[in-house]
Sequence to fold (579 residues):
Amino acid sequence: MSSKTLSLCVALIFTLVAFAPLASACDTWIAMGDSTYNGRILFGKNSDRPPFDCQPLIYNPQQFWGANATLKLEYIEIPQVGYTYATIGASPYWCYGYEMGMNEFGVVVGNEAVHTYALEQNKLTPPERGLLGMDMLRIGLERGQTAREVMDTITLLLETYGQWGSGAPGQDDNTGSYDNSFIIADSTEAWILESAGRDWVAKRIAEGTDSISNVISLQSDWDEGSIAEGTNFKLLYSNEADPVSLSGESRELRSQRLLDQYSADGDKVTLQEMMAIARDHEVSVPGICMHPIPMLSDSVSAGSWVVSLPSKQGEFIELWWCAYFPCQGIYVPAFFTPYGFPDIASNAGTLGKSVSAPNDVAPDEFKIDSYWWLFKKAADDQMDDERRTSFNSLEQGFIDKLDTMRPETEHLFSSGGWSLAYANLTLFTEESMDSTLSLLISEKLSGIDTESPTITDLKPETGISLSDNNLRASSLFNDNVKVDRSRVRIMLDGTDVTDDSSISSDGFSLNTILNGAKGDAHDLSIEIFDVAGNKASMNSVFSAGGPSGDEGETPGFGAIALLSIVLLAFVVRNIKRKK
Ligand SMILES: [Zn+2]
Fold:
């Protein structure tokens, strides 16, 4: 078949597919170390979901569980294990699981909805409801240290509990159920795992590039499985007549063609090319970036990840997260650290985050303190070239900054300076999200936030006389969206002491020794901005008690209070999440 004829056929398929409602699509693609510019495995996924299916970025710390603990999922409750590993993931607002996720050992997983003959059989004779693909993905990450272990966990779950029950909010089981396929990768290998009902096959990938979409792709070329050796899995189970399979077939071809193009003639796949695949809008075939077609298709690219996995000791996991349409969004660095993410990244809309059977949940709605919803709102009008240019330059700035941070950070990880390395990466995540939100609001959402931030609990209060010259100052910040950490300014007696202070978007603390004699007046001034540029300021005038010891103050009293607000904020956040 000539390439022109092929293009026409594919365009025809797209036209047909466009007239079918797609409950849930997705694309996942991978370039192994031999095919990438930096020798690291690069992983990409677009999560295609209903347009209101908010999927914030969630951090779940490692946790011990009681002997008889159970895990309550959307439809069933299963025994919990004694200990679960720390994970992060893009998690729909009603869902326990992740559309794409990663664990503390650097295993990353993305899943796909596949429509199979086993699914058709279930529609005719519905079995007991079981697990969703997203649940298997997260539970696998909580229980496995390597790609292999995560895969073994998922196949065991699949064989034990099966997969049936709507995986889309507001849809009944027959409309919203789907079988699942996965790419599971760690620093050394990747697996393509495809399932139909309780059957599955898996193929190991050690080199080159690969991709999956909403269609069974493995034929007889699998390495392990639950079915008889040599069986053609695609022939046995793929429901090619299903419009989701048709769309998946052409998108899988498309992502593989792009990977082939980027790695042809000795070329290597770059991070930016992985992002370009997510943003693909080829005219003659369905692009990888999915947009809604009103009244025809309700599946949109609601989030995207590009992950760069470590290839040697000292290297760290790099996650680039884009909320909502990749073609209209910004990939922001979101580092996997014990400190989690800024709250705004993990906030859903008006319905909040829960674990609920999706067929009973209402559509989530816009809330201004949700990073995901702000990007969705911004994407609802069209992107123009000027905005795309400024978004691109911000994104490239993050990539460049990480390049400059990498040597020192890797040195810290190699030499045991983990806590400082994680703190630096957490700060980079927070500042990148602040600048992304600032640009989004100024370029696309101007006027959406006119509410000023507030400063409360400023200490010392005006009029206070300190007992000595030890100053322990602090205050809390609040905003309806987010305080921009990088624009906080703390002035003491006209001198900028911002760099001497611990600062987060939730507040600041400063411990210092004042100059001067007893009774001298001092002035502390705070100025903050939110990410929309609204300002607040406050000051306090107080007097010092003179050099330490004058009034018999117990030396060292302040040491206990040195826990910074930054640390406290993280602790409180993590405790909240554990509940
Ligand atoms: Zn797009």
User: Anything to note?
Assistant: The radius of gyration is 26 Å. The chain has 13 helices and 26 strands.
